[in-house]
Specification:
This protein has 399 residues and is an alpha/beta fold. It is built from 13 helices and 13 strands. Bound molecules: nicotinamide-adenine-dinucleotide. Residues 48-54, 72-75, 87, 111-113, 138-141, 223-225, 268, 270-271, 273-276 line the site of nicotinamide-adenine-dinucleotide (NAD).
C-alpha cells in the first residue's frame, strides 16, 4: 500500500514502516558516531522500548555498548491494507539491525502492567541471559489495570490547585488559543499516581528480584520532567507531577531495599513524543524551546539525551552526578537561565501571527511526523510498501 500521514489532533493514525526503519537507523548511526560507552550495562531490560525515550534507551546500550536487550511495549501490528503503529515498526527495525550486528534482542508486545508479561520477561531472562544488569522504566500510558484487583485506573493531565488558563497551540489549526483546564479531583490525582507513579516500577523490580534474575549491583532508572514555571501548573504541580513525586519516593524505597544508587530518576528534556504532544501548553513551549536551543547549538533529541545519560552519567567512574534530591539532570541544558529567560520573553509576546517567526513550529511539525516515519530522507513515500512486518522475536501479542 501507499502510506501517507493521517493526523487527528495530537495523533497520527498511520505510520510508515520504511520511514520508521530510517528513523531508527538515524538514531543507531548517531550512537555509532560517538565513542563506545564506558562501564556499559551488558544485559538491559527496557520497559516502554518502542518509541521516544524508551526506544533511545534500547538503542544506546545496544549500539554504544554491545548490550543484549529485552524490550517491552504495547503496540499494534500492521495487517494487509492497514498500518501498524510506529512503535511496532520501530521495534521490527531495531531487532533487525541488532541481529545484523550480532546483538541479542527479544521483544514482548503486551501490557507491561500485567503479571503475565512480567512472568514472560522473567522466563526469557532465565532462559537466555541469566540476569539483567540494567532496567529502564519508560512507560507513558493513559491507563493501567491493577494486576492485583483488576481495577482500571486512568491518568489525566490537569492542574491540582486552581483552574488554569494559558496560551495553547492548536497544532491542527496552527493557531494560538487560550486553554482553560479545571483542576483535578482527589480521585483523578490518585488515579494518575496509580498509572504514572512508581508502583508498577517497583512491582517489576520486586518480581525480577524474587525470580533471582537481577545481577549484583544492578541499576534501574525511570524518567521524569520538571520544566520551567510557565508549565508547572499543568505538569510539575499538576496530576502528572504528583505521579512523578511518587516515582521519586519509589526510587528511595528501592534504594533502601537494594542499596544506595540502585534506583534513580532522570529528569529529561521536553521533546516531541507521542506522550508529550497530548499535554496542553507543552507543544507551544517545545516549539519556542527548539528555536532557542537550535540557535545556541544545544538542541538535543531523545537519542542525544539518552546517549548523554549513558556516557556522562552511567559511564562516569563514580557513577551518575545527582542533584540535591538525588536525581540525574539531563534537562540541564534546557534549564539554563539564558534559555529560560528567552523562552519567557517570547512566551509573553507570541501570537498566531508571529508563531513561525518566534518559534520553531515548523521543526515541531517535522519532528511530530518523524515519530510516525514520515519526512525521512531517502524514503520513497510514493512507492508501494508492505504494511505487514513481522517482529522477528515476537513472543506474545496483546489480547
Ligand atoms: P512515548 O509515548 O514515546 O513511549 C511510551 C512507551 O510506553 C511506548 O514504548 C509504549 O509502547 C509503552 N507503553 C505504553 N503503555 C504500555 C503498556 N500498558 N504496556 C507496555 N508498554 C506500554 O513516551 P515518552 O515521551 O518517551 O515517555 C517515556 C517516559 O519519559 C515517561 O515517563 C515520560 O513522562 C518521560 N519524559 C518524557 C518527556 C517528553 O518530553 N517526552 C520529558 C521528560 C520525561
Amino acid at each position: 500500500m501507499i502510506i501517507s500521514p493521517k493526523i487527528r489532533g495530537f495523533i497520527c493514525t498511520t505510520s510508515h514502516p520504511d520511514g520508521c526503519a530510517a528513523h531508527v537507523q538515524e538514531q543507531i548511526d548517531y550512537v555509532k558516531s560517538k565513542p563506545p560507552l564506558a562501564n556499559a550495562p551488558k544485559r538491559v531490560l527496557v520497559i516502554g522500548s518502542s518509541t521516544g525515550y524508551g526506544l533511545a534507551s534500547r538503542i544506546v546500550p545496544a549500539f554504544g555498548g554491545g548490550a543484549a536487550t529485552i524490550g517491552v511495549f504495547f503496540e499494534k501490528e500492521g495487517s494487509e491494507g492497514k498500518t501498524g503503529s510506529a512503535g511496532w515498526y520501530n521495534s521490527v527495525a531495531f531487532e533487525q539491525a541488532a541481529t545484523k550486528a550480532g546483538l541479542y534482542a527479544k521483544s514482548f508486545n503486551g501490557d507491561a502492567f500485567s503479571n503475565e508479561v512480567k512472568q514472560q520477561v522473567i522466563d526469557a531472562i532465565k532462559a537466555d541471559l541469566g540476569t539483567v544488569d540494567m532496567i529502564v522504566y519508560s512507560l507513558a500510558s493513559p491507563r493501567r489495570t491493577d494486576p492485583a484487583t483488576g481495577e482500571v485506573y486512568k491518568s489525566v493531565l490537569k492542574p491540582t490547585g486552581d483552574t488554569y488558563t494559558n496560551k495553547n497551540l492548536n497544532t491542527d489549526k496552527k493557531q494560538l488559543e487560550p486553554v482553560t483546564i479545571e483542576p483535578a479531583s482527589e480521585d483523578e490525582i490518585a488515579q494518575t499516581v496509580k498509572v504514572m507513579g512508581g508502583e508498577d516500577w517497583k512491582l517489576w523490580i520486586d518480581a525480577l528480584s524474587q525470580a533471582g534474575v537481577l545481577a549484583d549491583g544492578f541499576k534501574t532508572v525511570a524518567y521524569s520532567y520538571i520544566g520551567p514555571e510557565l508549565t508547572w501548573a499543568i505538569y510539575t504541580d499538576g496530576t502528572i507531577g504528583r505521579a512523578k513525586v511518587h516515582l521519586e519516593e519509589t526510587a528511595k524505597e528501592m534504594n533502601a531495599a537494594f542499596g544506595a544508587g540502585t534506583a534513580v530518576v532522570s529528569v529529561n528534556k521536553a521533546l516531541v513524543t507521542q506522550a508529550s504532544s497530548a499535554i496542553p501548553v507543552v507543544p507551544l513551549y517545545i516549539s519556542i524551546l527548539y528555536k532557542i536551543m537550535k540557535a545556541k547549538g544545544t538542541h538535543e533529541g531523545c537519542i542525544e539525551q539518552i546517549e548523554r545519560l549513558f556516557a556522562d552519567h552511567y559511564g562516569a567512574a563514580n557513577g551518575p552526578t545527582l542533584d540535591d534530591k538525588g536525581r540525574i539532570r539531563i534537562d540541564d541544558w534546557e534549564m539554563r537561565p539564558e534559555i529560560q529567560e528567552e523562552v519567557e520573553k517570547i512566551w509573553g509576546i507570541i501570537t498566531t501571527e508571529n508563531l513561525n517567526e518566534l518559534s520553531d513550529f515548523a521543526g515541531y511539525q517535522k519532528e511530530f511526523l518523524k515519530l510516525f516515519g514520515f519526512g525521512l530522507p531517502g524514503v520513497d513515500y510514493a512507492a508501494e510498501t508492505d504494511s505487514v512486518r513481522p517482529l522477528p522475536s515476537l513472543s506474545s501479542s496483546p489480547a
